[in-house]
Amino acid sequence: MSVLATLLQATTAEPLPDEAAAQSVELAADAAQAAAAPAAGANLDLLHLVLHASIPVQLVMLVLLLASIASWVIIFRKKRMLDRAAKEADRFEEKFWSGVDLGKLYSSASERNREVEGLESIFEAGFREYSRGRQRIGGDGRAQLEGAQRGMRVASSRELDGLEHNLEFLANVGSIAPYVGLLGTVWGIMIAFQGLANVKEATIASVAPGISEALIATAMGLFAAIPAVWAYNRFATRVERIAGRYDAFSDEFSSILERQATTGEA
Questions:
Q1: Three-state SS for 135?
Q2: Is pLDDT of 185 > 90?
Q3: What pLDDT digit, counting tens, does each position of 117-161 carry?
Q4: Coil, strand or helix at 54
Q5: CB contact at 8 A, 197 and 234
Q6: CA dihedral of residues 149, 151, 153, 159 (deg, nearest 10)
Q7: pLDDT (0 to 100) of residue 10
Q8: Average pLDDT over residues 199-214
Q9: What is the Cα Rg of the chain in Å?
């Protein structure tokens, strides 16, 4: 009987490897699903999140999108303007210090149907006021010099105003856009949690879509703000450098006019 019992126990124990294999297959399938879940979640459909966001959040996104487009338009235009101003300053300084007669240089700058800008505009304004002062005041050199300096200051201020135009908009976008995006995010999260009132069992899966839609607003706010802040700092520095060149030229040209007023040269 003991031998028979031993054989029966061996017979009933044979299916165990099959059961272990089935369990290992199930564990492998669960592991595969767990590994595939992050990969599937990594593919975010941004357009789907934007289109299915609430109306207030979509309005915030629209405002940020328009602000970003306007910022990039200003960035490209301002870069071309500052590059042109720097090249014009180099060109005119080279001509001015080449020893050319100031009267001929003024005649070239004051030609009709020709728009002057930058250093040439400052020179033209200063020499025009100086010439008028000589004709009107005669030998009063100090009054002639003050008139020329006043004309150069006005022209320099006008040129710098043109270079600084729209920089304030970049500064505003850079400082306000993140808060506008945060407003859209807070509103979206409020709506997402409000929807949990009608749900018996609140889970992360029921809240995650609404929060993801809301966080897009913050991302768009940063996308609009970062280039605007960088461009504002970059362009403001370049404008300061050009303003320094304008001031230096005005001082040097004033010295030349002062010598001419003292010696009585034309």
A1: helix
A2: no
A3: 888 999 999 988 888 877 775 556 788 888 888 999 999 999 999
A4: coil
A5: no
A6: -150
A7: 46
A8: 67
A9: 37
Q: Residue 187: count other Cβ atoms within 10 Å of its Cβ.
A: 19
- pLDDT given for residue 109 in this prediction: 80
Q: Structure tokens of 2?
A: 């003991």
Residue 97 CA to its chain's centroid (Å)? 38
Kindly indicate the confidence band of residue 4, based on its pLDDT and cuts at 50, 70 and 90: very low
Give the torsion through C-alpha atoms of 238, 82, 111, 108, to 10 deg. 60
What is the rounded CA–CA span in Å between residue 80 and residue 108? 25
Cα four-point dihedral sign 18, 22, 23, 28:
positive
Please list, in sequence order, all residues whose beta carbon lies within 8 angstroms of the beta carbon of residue 154, skipping any fewer than 6 positions away. Answer: 125
For 16, the 3-state DSSP assignment is: helix
CB-side neighbour CA atoms (13 Å) of 184: 30
**Per-residue model confidence (pLDDT) at position 13:** 47
Cβ neighbour number for residue 170 with a 10 Å cutoff: 25
Query: Helix, strand, coil % (nearest 5) of the chain?
Result: 85, 0, 15
